[in-house]
């Protein structure tokens, strides 16, 4: 409903007044003049009710944003740094006011009022952005909003005791706001959004300084938002320039995470791979290549590496996603558990495919998330089953079990598309030395050895090879599996027709083999 | 196939963390020291 | 084997918005505090100029190899940044001291009472006019005639 008469003018006057104070005051220490200004706000009745405060912030935001649009749309200043710094002038003043109000609202030791005010302002700015985005469409400008969010974040992360006490709330509020503004909701803000969530100070606070990794789940959610948005564009190999830019930017962010926070990628790999398109090989390899910094990876290329002698393969990796909960419908889960327990009824196997197939349209026939969940769930059950018998996974202990029944059934019963997704789901487990990597590596090799048609062997080879012929990095588990496949004579790899189906393919295998030996 | 990730402007061999000087997803180079805020003693803030 | 999947209507709309945003990419200075002297505004320089930061140029070792003049330049023009911090550290390694009271750098360690030309032979000083006025009131004598 309508703003009370006079409020718009009052707000305009006050915000201009503040911008003036901010600019003319000595340095940036405008705290002294802040109390005077708050008094003025009081005099104008702005602080009387919560509703008025909300309106004041909404109107102030709009006034600042409009000022920026005027500057940015002015042909003479477009793309000049002069124009931009004029915008910064206005936006930074607004941000300073918000930061001071947040810092000084309520008792200094009481964080609740401060956090409430921050949430209110972030919500208002997000609301103005979304409205602006939907109204202006192609004419929408990201910069003003990006600047407000960034500068406010820097202000609220200054090393001050009152802010330290607030910090976790600030990070939570920001993550909520960024989730609301995720690219799927505001595609025209996607570049600024990626820069915001990968700003060095934001990454530092979210992933490094906040204790007990408390913000890792929040950050993981933001990356899932990004992958979900990118998925339909990455799904098709042809990337348009805007997509290439966003994709490259995403790779850079992932590289920083791989280098500085590999454990974060290790913990969240499953959720990420679940939303990254299956054909997006390099980005997925990048995530799967992460390994804990405390771990020394044995060189996969040294001859006669005894993987099953490595101590690490007895330990299961941390999986944050509740895999069992993602297997649906519940009836299917129940049937699965009973089959795993009793290895009956056989009809379960014959119905498996119908549970996974959701349409007949090529390319989107299967429920990929369900496939991923099924594969990992059955695999973890198999490892537990083998351990219960005080064995460890090997070519003999993984065979002749309900678990292997399911995998062999999927291998034989699914069509090419389904089998590709199934093998992908398995290959996603080939990471650093751990019990999953070891189990699925053995399973891959077992399925290859036991395959009754060469089509299956060829497809296993294709899935592994396509992950090897892209630029680095390559996950350790992938390398050792492929090396074992082409080295171990039991698999008769080089005798298969598909290895020699064309000179360039043969050459490719030889060059990979050469680099492996 | 794919990108050569070693030419995206990140020093992947750095023994130090990358994020403190990460120039952002669009930057070809890390931030320079003069780009990165630092909590210097207040007396140093002379201007 | 998955083949291509045509974009749905919703994704086509998103792509159009993304595409127009592509022509308003963020600028490096958007996410930095306003810098008085050297904002983060990359300029396109001739390709044969050095394009990437010099190796290790964000380390103290590197700064220690810079000339004193350069260090003072960095200290004065890049305040509040890691560069200023590194420059100050490097100056201190070369036995320069920053007197917080006088806001000045001295290469000698004793606290000067009088600064005149012979005191300053071979030493570089930087100070702030306003602060110097205050110091003067406190009886601080300063006879150095040329000061830039």
From TrEMBL, chain C:
Keywords: Coiled coil, Cytoplasm, Developmental protein, Nucleus, Phosphoprotein, Repressor, RNA-mediated gene silencing, Transcription, Transcription regulation, Translation regulation. It comes from the Eukaryota. GO terms for cellular component: CCR4-NOT core complex; cytosol; nucleus; P-body. The chain holds residues 497 to 644 of 649 of the full protein. Residues 22-147 form the NOT2/NOT3/NOT5 C-terminal domain. Component of the CCR4-NOT complex; distinct complexes seem to exist that differ in the participation of probably mutually exclusive catalytic subunits. In the complex interacts directly with CNOT2. Interacts with TIP120B and NANOS2. Interacts with EBF1. Interacts in an RNA-independent manner with BICC1 (via KH domains). Its main location: cytoplasm. It comes from Dendroctonus ponderosae (Mountain pine beetle). This is CCR4-NOT transcription complex subunit 3.
